[in-house]
């Protein structure tokens, strides 16, 4: 996976000038959290086609999440929900990266021609 893969979670973009209601914004975070769970399951099963489709779906949701300052202030409860979502997403992302590492190393070997030397 390239640097723009699942790490786009941290590169949230939003183009509207209107404030998004917190309930809508939190629904987006929860949707991304659920998709990241599905991505983790796909990675555990080595279903890279399914993973790729889920990654595209996830990016669609991420680009709907407003950046800081384009949303109404969060209540303490809403902030707690948002933080819980982000922690889960980051945890899933780390496990996905750990699962992909052997595959990425093998791909690197193939690309450099080292697989033929072994």
What can you see in these coordinates?
- The chain has 118 residues and is an all-alpha fold.
- The chain has helices at residues 22-44, 48-62, 76-112.
- The relative contact order is 0.18.
Anisotropy-based shape: elongated
Instruction: Describe the largest sheet.
Output: none
Strand content range:
under 5%
Mean pLDDT: 80
Annotation field: number of helices: 3
Category by helix and strand content: mainly alpha
Taking Cα atoms only, what radius of gyration do you get, to the nearest Å?
17 Å
Count of DSSP E strands?
0
Query: What is the helix content?
Result: 55-70%
Pick out the low-confidence regions: 1-17
SSE sequence, one letter per element: HHH
Give the terminus-to-terminus CA distance.
24 Å
Map the helices and strands.
Layout: H1 22-44, H2 48-62, H3 76-112
Helix pairs in contact: 1-2, 1-3
List keywords for this structure.
118 residues, mainly alpha, disordered N terminus
Concise synopsis of the structure shown:
The protein is mainly alpha-helical.
